[in-house]
Amino acid sequence: MFGSKNVATTNPTLTKGIDRLTETWETTRVAVAPRVEAARVAMAPRLAAARDAVTPLVDEASARMTPVLERVGPAVDTARTKLRDDVVPAVAAAVENSGPARAEAKERAAAAVLALRGQQRKRVRRWPVALLCLLAGGAAGVAASKLTKKTSSTVTPTPFPTAAPKATEQDEASADTRAPYPVAPTS
After folding, report:
1. Helical H runs in the chain?
2. How does pLDDT run across 94-118, given as a tens digit for each residue?
3. What single-letter DSSP state applies at residue 180?
């Protein structure tokens, strides 16, 4: 009733508290039940008289309000539809579009309150954060270069292709026209 069975059975203080609360509840219910029943019996004739006195008034009010409700019902439905279809989207769009203006107004109001108090707004210094980020990036770069130098082997670059020797007229005549590199004409 007041917690899990496991906690109640393992904690003796909690078990005693639950037992006392259960006993108190039972004692209270036994003591109050006859008084509640006596109050019910005593109030029954008064409630019946009040019900008999109010019933004609409620019937008359209901008869007067029925035609009014029948006339107002379609207008309420129309207003509800217009509110849901036209007003709510317009208000939502206005709230969304006024976000920057509201932020500016909030900032200006805070500045005005500070000016009225005779205080000045504290300037926010951003360069320390930028410098810290720059140093952290440099340290990360140095650490990455140290790690890659330890684990990588040296790579010898491939040499650039050398110029082909000058061809003679005999070589040109017997040369294949599908050479990969064009041969410059000799003069």
Report:
1. 5-10, 12-82, 88-97, 99-117, 127-151, 169-174
2. 989 998 999 999 999 999 998 998 8
3. S
